[in-house]
């Protein structure tokens, strides 16, 4: 399954137009297919979901010509629909299945609607029940009234129906069924939901009447084909609106986006949180949908409370709102949003789980969540759970993590926002161009919050050298130790020796509880002999076997164990009781010897490191290694705030060592008489 890696960005900047509105694109194809006369739709969203609707109406006998991916010419020359030869595939789209069911329930032929695994779990009882009251015959093949659905031929009659849940999909299904029913259909909404169907019906010449909270539609009226333009999808723009508003220094302009007030609840919530958003509505082209442009400037937001009444106007934006709530000061409460549990995934459960992976404190509620903002966002590996909006919401939060994050199963983004990741790169790269380069993304360990700061200074001087894979730190550390005439210690050797010991004993390394027991019984000896670290496990040194392919494959798993890292701390620290050391690793300056004054962080441009690793014959990707090192919970790779940072991209080993010696001198390291710089 496709994954996407996201590096942190300082800000979001630039100008974009988002793809066409998904809700309107579905409806445009459906209503134009029912109309007499031709319609040209421009701005159509050619996403997986909407293409399913397009193919379905082609299968029902409508002429739909795709002029370019976003422009369709639609005409139903026979003025009726014909039975499709096969089941109509609704893919991942709840909107398509619920709305097309309204169109097909009153036809004189049988239809079958199928969907993917996620859609096959979504509730259809909410449309089956009122449609059957209108006279439809529908069989849900799934266990809990879930798809596939078979709709038998039927003649419908108008009813009055009060929706038990505020749902534009159910309302639209009944409006479309009402169009094919005898008499009048009246629908009462508990609270207003998106009104695209009503606006489009009016555009095609059949204006539903409103009487208070009731919407009325007369059966048997004929729609007239009329060209229309689909504005950009506000729900797609929402990722940039929310992201830019919550990331200080951002500035984004979004043009030609739909600004239908039944969809833009997110703007009201963000304004309440302190966001800076300017909205300018353009003159309508007469197709009934307000659109315009938005200018968003980033700043510090504060938490807010989102209550049931505003949920329908921002239902699809709640995942990204939950994500950026983590960047706001204080708590954000989302209540009255139980509907989220029956979307493309259970969006409450899945967002809570992902936020927790990013290190965000969050409480799950039956109908929402409480997100506590203002904490450090940890780089994380999360899943989309097959839900496009979860994938995109988490991508926005990942921009503020302390390292590279990864979102798994991102293929689903194609259902609503093809090109999302291209836009993400464009808008976050604009900030990279104004930044100094890759170094601006380094995760610095904040000195204040290091609990180990109180650790005692080592008895003998210790030079701590940390850095990522292929940064050159081992060669440099060895050379430096030699120049200083003190011991060289590679902390990684200890993890390798233990891994070797575990493999020799045939222990399962994947499970920490299992290898813990064995490690507890191991005799681990670390000694400095001839200025080098020697590690013995139960009296034996691993020698060359410490670098065997088996050890290579397992060592990162062993080293990721928080328990083991803690257990080794006294062993490492003991070495400095009697010896001056240069010790290198990933957490020497931050966790092992946080109190030493002699700290370095050596890094290099990822492209240079990639080349170095290839020369060493290593095939694993630098990106993956960095991700593992920076995102693990136990002692993740960080540049300590008081470490001297060195970019070795364009330096020789000798130059780096000379720089380290200069810095050591400045920091008062007791240098031997006339150290021989290499
Ligand atoms: C939609 C309505 C909403 C929304 C969905 C699209 C529509 O669903 O979540 O993405 O196009 O009518 P409900 O109406 O079921 O809340």
From TrEMBL:
Q: Where does phosphoenolpyruvate bind?
A: 22, 94, 122, 169, 347, 389
Tell where it localizes. Cytoplasm
State what protein this is by name.
Multifunctional fusion protein
Please list the residues that bind ATP: 467-475
Question: Which residue intervals define the domain Enolpyruvate transferase in the entry?
Answer: 10-424
Q: What's the stated role of this polypeptide?
A: Catalyzes the transfer of the enolpyruvyl moiety of phosphoenolpyruvate (PEP) to the 5-hydroxyl of shikimate-3-phosphate (S3P) to produce enolpyruvyl shikimate-3-phosphate and inorganic phosphate.
Q: Does the keyword NAD apply?
A: no
Q: Might you name a Gene Ontology BP term for this protein?
A: pyrimidine nucleotide metabolic process
Q: How does it assemble?
A: Monomer.
Which reaction(s) are listed as its catalytic activity? 3-phosphoshikimate + phosphoenolpyruvate = 5-O-(1-carboxyvinyl)-3-phosphoshikimate + phosphate; dCMP + ATP = dCDP + ADP; CMP + ATP = CDP + ADP
Looking up Pfam families in the UniProt record yields: Cytidylate_kin (PF02224), EPSP_synthase (PF00275)
Instruction: Return the annotated region ranges for Disordered.
Output: 609-633
| Entry's Gene Ontology molecular function annotations | 3-phosphoshikimate 1-carboxyvinyltransferase activity; ATP binding; CMP kinase activity; dCMP kinase activity
State where composition is biased (Basic and acidic residues). Answer: 609-632
For this UniProt record, give its keywords in alphabetical order, as a comma-separated list: Amino-acid biosynthesis, Aromatic amino acid biosynthesis, ATP-binding, Cytoplasm, Kinase, Nucleotide-binding, Transferase
Q: Which NCBIfam families match?
A: aroA, cmk
Q: Which family does it belong to?
A: Belongs to the cytidylate kinase family. Type 1 subfamily. Belongs to the EPSP synthase family.
């Amino acid at each position: 399954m496709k994954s996407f890696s996201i590096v942190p960005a300082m800000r979001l900047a630039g100008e974009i137009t988002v793809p066409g509105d998904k809700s309107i694109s579905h409806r445009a194809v459906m209503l134009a297919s029912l109309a007499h006369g031709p319609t040209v739709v421009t701005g159509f969203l050619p996403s997986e979901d909407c293409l399913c609707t397009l193919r379905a109406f082609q299968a029902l006998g409508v002429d739909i010509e795709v002029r370019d991916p976003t422009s369709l010419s639609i005409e139903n020359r026979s003025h009726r629909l014909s039975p499709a030869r096969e089941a109509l595939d609704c893919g991942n789209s709840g909107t398509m299945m619920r709305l097309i069911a309204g169109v097909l329930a009153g036809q004189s032929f049988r239809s079958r609607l199928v969907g993917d695994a996620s859609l096959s779990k979504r509730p259809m009882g909410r449309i089956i029940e009122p449609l059957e009251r209108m006279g439809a015959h529908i069989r849900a093949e799934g266990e809990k009234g879930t798809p596939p659905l078979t709709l038998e031929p039927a003649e419908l009659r108008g009813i009055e129906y009060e929706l038990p849940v505020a749902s534009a999909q159910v309302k639209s299904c009944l409006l479309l069924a009402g169009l094919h029913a005898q008499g009048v259909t009246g629908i009462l909404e508990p609270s207003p939901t998106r009104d695209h169907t009503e606006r489009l019906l009016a555009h095609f010449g059949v204006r539903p009447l409103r009487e208070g909270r009731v919407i009325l539609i007369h059966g048997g009226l004929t729609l007239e084909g009329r060209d229309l333009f689909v504005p950009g999808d506000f729900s797609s723009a929402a990722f940039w609106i929310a992201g830019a508003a919550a990331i200080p220094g951002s500035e984004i302009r979004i043009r030609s986006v739909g600004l239908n007030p039944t969809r833009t609840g997110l703007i009201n919530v963000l304004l309440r949180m302190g966001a800076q958003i300017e909205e300018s509505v353009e003159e309508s082209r007469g197709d009934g949908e307000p659109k315009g442009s938005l200018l968003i400037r980033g700043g510090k937001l504060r938490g807010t409370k989102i209550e049931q009444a505003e949920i329908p106007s921002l239902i699809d934006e709640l995942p990204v709102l939950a994500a950026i709530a983590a960047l706001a000061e204080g708590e954000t409460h989302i209540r009255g949003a139980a509907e989220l549990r029956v979307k493309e995934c259970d969006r409450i459960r899945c967002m809570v789980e992902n936020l927790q992976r990013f290190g965000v404190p969050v409480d799950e509620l039956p109908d929402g969540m409480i997100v506590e903002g203002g904490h450090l966002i940890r780089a994380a590996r999360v899943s989309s759970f097959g839900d496009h909006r979860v994938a995109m919401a988490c991508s926005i939060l990942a921009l503020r993590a302390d390292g590279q994050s990864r979102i798994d199963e991102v293929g689903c983004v194609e259902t609503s926002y093809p090109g999302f990741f291209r836009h993400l790169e464009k808008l976050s790269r604009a900030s990279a161009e104004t930044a100094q380069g890759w170094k601006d993304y380094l995760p610095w360990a904040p000195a204040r919050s290091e609990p180990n700061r109180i650790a005692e200074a080592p008895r003998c001087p210790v030079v701590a050298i940390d850095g990522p894979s292929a940064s050159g730190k081992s060669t440099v550390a060895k050379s430096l130790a030699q120049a200083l005439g003190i011991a060289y210690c590679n902390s990684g050797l200890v993890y390798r020796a233990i891994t070797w010991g575990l493999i020799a004993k045939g222990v399962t390394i994947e499970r920490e509880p299992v290898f813990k027991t064995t490690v507890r019984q191991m005799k681990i000896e670390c000694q400095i002999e001839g200025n080098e670290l020697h590690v013995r496990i139960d009296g034996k040194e691993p020698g060359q076997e410490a670098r065997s392919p088996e050890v290579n494959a397992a060592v990162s798993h062993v080293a990721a164990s928080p328990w083991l890292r803690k257990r080794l701390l006294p062993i490492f620290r003991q070495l400095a009781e009697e010896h001056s050391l240069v010790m290198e690793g990933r957490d020497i300056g931050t966790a092992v010897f946080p109190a030493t004054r002699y700290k370095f962080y050596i890094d290099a441009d990822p492209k240079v490191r990639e080349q170095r690793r290839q020369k060493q014959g290593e095939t694993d990707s630098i990106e993956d290694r960095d991700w593992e090192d920076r995102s693990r919970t136990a002692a993740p790779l960080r540049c300590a705030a008081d470490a001297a940072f060195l970019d070795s991209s364009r330096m020789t080993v000798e130059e780096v060592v000379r720089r380290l010696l200069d810095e050591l001198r400045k920091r008062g390291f007791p240098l031997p008489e006339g150290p021989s710089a290499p």
